[in-house]
Amino acid sequence: MSHNCRYCDTPLSLSFADLGATPLANSYLENTDAAKKAERSFPLHVMVCRRCRLTQTTETVPADAIFDHDYAYLSSYSASWVAHAKRYAAAMTGQFGLGPDSLVAEIASNDGYLLQHFVGANVPVLGIEPAGHAAELAEKRGVPTRVEFFGIDAAAALRAQGVQADLIAANNVLAHVPDIRDFAGGFPVLLAPEGVVTFEFPHLLNLIRYVQFDTIYHEHYSYLSLLFVEQLLASAGLRVFDVEELPTHGGSLRVFACHNDASHPLQPGVAKVRGNEAAHGLDTDLAYTSFGARIETVRTGFLDFCAKAESQGKKVAGYGAAAKGNTFLNFCGAGLQTLIMVADANPEKQDKLLPGTHIPVVSPDRLMAERPDYVVILPWNLRDEVSGQLDGIRDWGGRFVTAIPDLDVF
């Protein structure tokens, strides 16, 4: 079956990673036979457009099948992510002089994890969030939230009501939209003349360098470089004037953009990241062609470790019922013979089953009571946070494991 680029409609011919057919990464199951029987899988294959270099999934699972009212991901359950949002709010308020007469909007505002910090600083806010449950939680935090998908029509409706934002935050959402051109087109409509929009997204360059294939899942329609994002925003009438490199999500970019005729001067961070991407050949085929072999090496290393642990009678559990963990475990063909359980602090995931592998999700207390010999930290980007929270496993000789970019037992 042939596929065309989501952005420029060029036929896709360059394969990046083929992870087989997997369920949706955040579709946790009730522990019933009916739920297991009804579970659906979709091909998870990523290809690269040779024209615009957008790296993208070939299958477009409808967004409303993913981000429904009960969508399970809630940002506030990661303490480190909430702290990151608090730092962002403080930095943007200072840098752009935000105050009681300003408006900060966030696209995909989730449960209010970020906008709450602006509310606390007496800066008016507006959240736009398609998942109704997350929006309800945001409202309880004092964050006004509209439940809808963002794009040109949604932005135009807000603009018609006199809404214009001095700052728009779009954290880890640009990769989550199937119609990326319509999504980007909404920002200049909603943005005030001297306003700023910031986009944060995991950097494709780090995905390649550190074999972060588990960040591939159906919710992530796109895998983004500055090379592509500058093209996308330029086509919408926005100019990138600064880029910051962040440690979040295994290495992210924060891209600052404004209207073409706004006064924000070009900053050195733009040239730096452009140069890094060019040095690693992101504008060539070569950067993408060896990735499939590298992810096979990661899978083999992890399964060999698990087989050895089983042969020694060791118990292996997991921590973090995260989407990336579900991609990783499904690609590895893992199941109860691999991990006896996965603990997660989010009570809305507890007592459910992981999609595909059907490994039970339990509370951290249940994991500690089980006294496993090894705990695999599936969200490896939170290894320091998780290993600190679960340091008590060392009392019985337990050790932590991460599998990406290579196996590390510590």
Overview of the structural elements:
This protein has 15 helices and 17 strands. It has helices spanning 33-38, 63-66, 79-95, 115-120, 132-140, 152-160, 180-190, 204-209, 226-235, 268-279, 286-289, 291-311, 323-332, 364-370, 383-389, and strands at 14-22, 42-48, 55-57, 104-107, 125-128, 145-146, 165-171, 191-202, 222-223, 238-246, 252-259, 316-319, 342-343, 361-362, 374-377, 399-402, 408-409. The strands form three sheets. A seven-stranded mixed β-sheet has the order 6-5-4-7-8-11-10.
Low-pLDDT runs: none
The main β sheet shows up as:
7 strands, mixed
Distance between the termini: 44 Å
Kindly state the number of beta strands.
Answer: 17
Helical residue percent band:
25-40%
Shape: globular
**In percent, how much strand structure appears in the residues?**
15-25%
Give the strand order of the largest sheet, numbering strands 1, 2, ... along the chain.
6-5-4-7-8-11-10
